[in-house]
Structure formats: structure tokens, C-alpha cells
Amino acid sequence: MNRRSLLILAAAVLAGILVGSALFLTIPKDPAPPMVIIVYGGEKGDLSFVDSASRGLSTAQENLTFETLEFTSLEYGTIEALLKNESPKRPVLVITASFAYTNATAQLASEYPEVSFLGIDQQGSSLPNLRTCEITSYGSSYLAGILAANVTSTRHVGIILGTHSDVLEGFLLGYRDGIRAVDPSIVIEERYVRENSVEGFSDPVRAQEIAREMYEGSVDVIFTVAGFSGTGAIDEANRAPGRYVIGVDRDQSDLGPDVILASAVKHVDRAVESGIREFMEGTFCGGEQVVGLREGATDLVFNPKFAGYKETVDLWREKVDQVILNTRDSYGVRYQAFLSRSA
């Protein structure tokens, strides 16, 4: 190769290097995936509400690209520090999945208007960046009451609730109204795992003690509305012949195939997944959302072993909406307002 050829080759190589360098310098880096925070109302593994919320996050992760931080309690200072962070890792969506976080969620949303917030099982929002999603279980609990009234042979049924709260009041009212619609003379026993503490959702030992007392007192059907604590009542039913449970939040038939009649399912997973999806698609907005049986957010799901009762219970489904619209409780009023806004 002569001198002239070598010079041409060298020039070509140099030009290639310069072009490659220019391309390298001008290609922008991919933006960091958005960061989503989710705060559960307790530890995973509750076989109930928390696991349903976690399942919704997993479903969203299968179909969308984002990063996430998960918390089992609302550590206000920690989350606030993350929201103040100006790096690409700063959260753009915060999901709080518990009625216990209502005030804290509203406070954070007011302080960080550029961040979107989704409060599940929470009520009332006047902020454009905060959506509260109240998944009311009045309708599914009404059907649970219909079921209990048709199953009981002692005419004495019960309900175990985790604690006192407006959210759980919907379960209690629905269950009570459903039973009374079938037979007003049936005795309904109401008990709380903890009177005024969310720890009532994580104390299966106490719930089992309560269930034992109720079963020994002639109650033969118990509706458990107590998160992980409800597993204690299911354990007791498994030991007591002729005693049954109606589960909650997810289909709990696997926890007691011979004693779980049905489960008042609450689709927390759908609320989480749809909230993330809408945010990623740019359609997320604030406001107050109230959903329940009519919208498919809740349902009464039967254990196949007791599916023979389904036909009887289903006869009452079409009546539930009218019962809700006629009720004077706070949910009935809010639901009517929601329907009028949706019309």
C-alpha cells in the first residue's frame, strides 16, 4: 500500500471515529422510569386486603414500566423526604391503601400539588391531584347477610370487625340489612377485635377467642371483617362442626374449604392497577370516587362446595341498588351524589 492510500485510509478511520463520537455525544439518555410509592395498611401475607393491594401492584408491573417503593405503614417523614428529593427518583404517584391514612394523604397532597395521590378506602377530595377511592362493601355485605340468614339453623349469626371505622360501618350495615330482609327475628351478634385500633386487623389469636365464644353461644355463621385477624375465626370454624364463616376482601375458600360459605370480595387490586395505569396513560385526575357492587368493585364469591345457595342469593342482587338508594346512612347519601354526577 503506497503513501497516498495510507493517508486516505487514515482519514477515513479518523472520520469514522469523529462521527461515532458525535453520535455518542448527541444520543440522549433514556429518561428514568417514573417512581410510584405504595403504602399498605399492614404487612403482606394477611391473606386479605393488603395482599389484594399488592396483587394490583404486581399486575401493573407486568404491563407497565415504572419503579416502586413499598411501605407497610405511612412513615410521614420518610415519604416527605422522598417527595422533596429533586432527583429523577422522586415519586410522581403515591398510593395509600387504608382508611387510616385519610388525613395524612390529604396533607401530603396539599403540600405537594405536583405529585399525584390515590387514597384507597378513603373519602372526600377537593384537590385536583388527589383521588379518593371509596370501595364500599355495603352491597356485597347485604348479600352476605342474605346468605347467612338462609344458612343459619340456630337463628343466631355474628360479625367480627377489626375496629370501629366509617369504612367497616358499610360492612356492618349491609350485613345487618340483608339478614333482616330475610328474617327480622334472627339475632345478630357484633364483636370487635379491637375497639379503636387498627391492630384489630392483625390479631388472629383474639379473633379466634371471640369466634369460639360466639360459636359456643349458638352462633353458627360469622362474617369476618378483620383482615388477617379473620384467619383466627376461620381456624376456629375448622374445629367446630356445623359452624361456618363468610370471608372478606378476597376469595378465602382455600383457608377453609369445608367452612367458608362465600367471601365478600373487595377488588383493591383493581383500584391499585387502574390508578397506576391511568397515571401512566396521562388520564389520572383527582376527585371523589365511590364504587361498589354495581360497578364490579365488590362481589359475593361462593365456595364451590356451597354454590347451591347462590341461586337464592342472586334473587336479591337486583334489589340491592334500590336498598342503597333508600338508605339514610352516609354511604347511601354519597352514593346517590356519585350516581347523579356520573349520569
Describe this structure in a few short sentences:
This protein is of the alpha/beta class and 343 residues long. Helices cover 45% and strands 20% of the residues.
Layout: helices, strands, pairs:
Elements: H1 3-26, E1 35-40, H2 49-63, E2 67-71, H3 76-84, E3 91-97, H4 102-111, E4 116-120, E5 130-135, H5 138-151, E6 156-161, H6 166-182, E7 187-192, H7 204-216, E8 221-225, H8 230-239, E9 244-249, E10 260-266, H9 268-281, E11 287-291, E12 298-302, H10 310-314, H11 317-326, H12 330-342
Parallel strand pairs: 1-2, 1-3, 3-4, 4-5, 5-11, 6-7, 6-8, 8-9, 9-10
Antiparallel strand pairs: 10-12
Helix pairs in contact: 2-9, 5-6, 5-11, 7-8
How would you portray this structure in words?
α6 (166-182) links the parallel β6 and β7 (187-192). The relative contact order is 0.14. α7 crosses α8 (230-239). The chain contains 12 helices and 12 strands. Mean pLDDT is 88; it is low at 17-26. The chain folds into 2 domains: 35-135 and 269-291, Rossmann fold; 138-266 and 303-329, Rossmann fold. With 343 residues, the protein is of the alpha/beta class. It is elongated, with a radius of gyration of 26 Å.
Count of beta strands: 12
Estimate the mean pLDDT confidence.
Answer: 88
CATH architecture of the largest domain: 3-Layer(aba) Sandwich
What radius of gyration results from the CA coordinates? 26 Å
Strand content: 15-25%
Supply the number of helical segments.
12
**Low-pLDDT ranges:** 17-26
The coarse silhouette is elongated
- Output the strand order for the largest sheet: 2-1-3-4-5-11
Kindly state the percentage of residues in helix.
Answer: 40-55%
Name the CATH homologous superfamily of the largest domain. Response regulator
User: Can you tell me the CATH class of the largest domain?
Assistant: Alpha Beta
Under CATH, the topology of the largest domain is which? Rossmann fold
Largest sheet: 6 strands, parallel
Q: Work out the count of structural domains.
A: 2
Structural class label: alpha/beta
